[in-house]
Each structure stands twice: as structure tokens, then as C-alpha cells.
Design a protein that fits this description.
The chain is an alpha/beta fold and 351 residues long.
Length: 351
């Protein structure tokens, strides 16, 4: 197979971890006789510095023409610490999601056998955890009307959803549940929010189309508690943008490190794959960042093109690296800490 992949390294540690995912992907392509054409493009603070825009039209054109996008991370402290900044790296991420129609963020959470005791949660709490959070990406409070009034002393952000937006996300959730253990949990705040009541009634109306799926409805605050008590109780979770943003970061630490969890953002046509962590600017250029989440995101990419053996080969070699202690400093616990580039080289070689 020939794949054309847009490569958006972004900011901070993004270029370093992306480099390792490219090494591993190229090794898999060589092993299974595929061809990958990589097309780099600017986004985030790097794009602002270069052209003054966090998601330039040229980058969008490259992403649209590609079969998929492999994305690193965006963000820089100089924007975080300047509330008056008119242009921000994160605006590029929101613009990219909207323009590419990436309405569903797929966030798996699972444990690694060799790391199960490194989790902040007890072994008996997390054994058997294998869940997916499906987060709506292009609606809700992040895209609603916002502003200031009363001479800037009052601020507002509006959470708005249409039934159609909820239906397309829920449809993916039901379909995903059908390929797993046929359990779906809709997370909302329907006791308070009108938008959540629309979520709940929309999903309830869709239940008849998927009679084999067992559907539950839970409030977001309860799920935030239950995720760290009984994460294995969940299979597929669907939720809106803000709730999903918070819950996916909470779930990510179950495995023992945010540097381990991959994700995908998908639409009707476009597909983007990225680690769930941020740009970690404090580590940028030090060759210490954990690249495994980005490497596993590449595995998700292969699997979505029905290259299941290729994806499994990546996951197998990642588990081997963890079992043998070929890890970066966040997982080394006083043992040998490998550099980011050394982990990538080891993975590629051991494929």
C-alpha cells in the first residue's frame, strides 16, 4: 500500500516525538512492503513565527490532500503567559479540527502488563481496563459564542449543540461498541444543562437502532469519580467537547504516564493521529520526552487503514521496550533512562 501522510510536528517536544514515530512507521513499511510519502507542514507557534498564522492555508491544503495526518503537539509558554495575545497556537488546533471536519476524538485507555504497578492507582483497581472515550470535537463551549460585557468585567462562553452534531458522534459510539463488548455510556450533565438534555434525548432515540448495545447515562461528575475507582466498568464512553477534554486527561494517567496514550481525531473523510500529551516546552530539545504515545498513534493510523498486522507489530515492540526497560526518564525510576531518539532507534531496529 502507498500512503501519503501529512506530518505536522508542531511545537515543543512535537518534532522530537514525531521523528521517532516516523522511524518506526518507516521500519514497519519496509517490513510489510508499503510505501509512505511524508509531507511536512507548519502549525502552532512554529507557524505563527514563520507566517503569522497558527494553521496556514498551505498546511490545510497539505492535510486535505493527504490520506492521513500525523500530528505532534502545539503550544508555547509565551502565549500561555500573555492573556492579551490575539493569535495563539491553540487557535490553529481548533481551526484545523473545524476545517478538516474532525468531529470525533477517539481516546483509548488501557494498561501495560509491565507498568501496571507504576500507575498512581492500585493494581486491583485498574487490571482489565480497556476503554475508549469518544469526545465530540467541533461543537460545544469551545466553539460557541463568547465575549465580554460590563466594561470587560463579565465574560461569557456559550455551549451550543445541534441534534445532528450529537447524532453523528453517537453513531460512531454505537458502531464502536458493536465491535467491542456492546456497552455504551453517554456522559452529560442533564440535571442542570439544557444542551446535556438534548444529548440524552438524542442518544435515547437512537437506542432502537442498536438493540444489542447496553446503554447507560451518567453525570460527568460521577464519571470523574468512577474513572479512578472502577475504570474497568467502562467500555465506550461518548461525551461533549469540554467534558471529554477533562475526562480523557484524567483517564490517561491510569496507565502510569500521559506519555503512553495515543489518540485519533476523525471526520467523514479526514483522519488525524496524535499523542494526548501537550508540547511540554520545558523538555523541548533535551531528547528526554517519551515518544511512545506518538508511536502508538502511528499504530492506530495503520489499523484504520486495515493494516492490522502492522499495527500489532508496533504494539508488540512497544510492549517489549517497556518490559525490557528501554524507556525515557519518566518511566525509568532510577534505572537507565534512554533518550527519546534512542528509544525510537531501538523500536525501529527491533521490529
Amino acid at each position: 500500500m502507498k500512503l501519503n501522510i501529512a506530518l505536522l510536528a508542531g511545537d515543543g517536544i512535537g518534532p522530537e516525538v514525531i521523528d521517532q514515530a516516523v522511524k518506526v512507521s518507516n521500519a514497519v513499511a519496509a517490513k510489510f512492503n508499503h510505501e509512505i510519502n511524508w509531507t511536512p507542514a507548519l502549525t502552532g507557534a512554529a507557524a505563527i513565527d514563520s507566517v503569522g498564522e497558527p494553521y496556514p492555508d498551505e498546511t490545510h491544503a497539505i492535510c486535505e490532500a493527504a490520506d492521513a495526518v500525523l500530528f505532534g503537539a502545539i503550544g508555547h509558554p509565551r502565549f500561555d503567559n500573555d492573556p492579551s495575545a490575539k493569535v495563539r497556537p491553540e487557535q490553529g488546533l481548533l481551526k484545523m479540527r473545524k476545517k478538516l471536519g474532525l468531529f470525533a476524538n477517539v481516546r483509548p485507555t488501557f494498561t501495560f502488563p509491565s507498568l501496571i504497578d507504576k500507575s498512581p492507582l492500585k493494581r486491583e483497581r485498574i487490571e482489565g481496563t480497556d476503554l475508549i472515550i469518544l469526545r465530540e470535537l467541533t461543537g460545544g463551549v469551545y466553539f460557541g459564542e463568547r465575549g465580554r460585557k460590563d466594561n470587560g468585567n463579565t465574560a461569557f462562553d456559550t455551549m451550543t449543540y445541534t441534534r445532528a452534531e450529537i447524532q453523528r458522534l453517537a453513531k460512531k459510539g454505537f458502531e464502536m461498541a458493536m465491535t467491542r463488548s456492546k456497552r455504551l455510556c453517554c456522559v452529560d450533565k442533564a440535571n442542570v444543562l439544557e444542551s446535556s438534555r438534548l444529548w440524552r434525548e438524542t442518544v435515547q432515540a437512537m437506542e432502537k437502532d442498536y438493540p444489542e448495545v447496553e446503554v447507560s447515562y451518567e453525570f460527568v461528575d460521577a464519571v470523574a469519580m468512577r474513572l479512578v475507582q472502577w475504570p474497568s466498568d467502562y467500555d465506550v464512553i461518548i461525551t461533549e467537547n469540554l467534558f471529554g477534554d477533562i475526562l480523557t486527561d484524567e483517564a490517561s494517567v491510569i496507565s502510569g504516564s500521559m506519555g503512553l496514550m495515543p489518540s485519533a481525531s476523525v471526520g467523514e473523510k479526514a483522519r488525524l493521529y496524535e499523542p494526548i500529551h501537550g508540547s511540554y516546552p520545558q523538555a523541548a530539545g533535551k531528547d528526554i520526552a517519551n515518544p511512545l504515545a506518538t508511536v502508538l498513534s502511528a499504530a492506530m493510523l495503520f489499523e484504520d487503514f486495515d493494516l492490522k498486522n502492522e499495527a500489532e507489530a508496533i504494539r508488540t515492540v512497544v510492549n517489549k521496550s517497556l518490559a525490557e526497560g528501554v524507556v525515557t526518564e519518566d518511566l525509568s525510576e532510577g534505572g537507565t533512562a534512554y533518550k527519546t531518539s534512542e528509544v525510537g532507534d531501538w523500536l525501529a531496529k527491533n521490529l
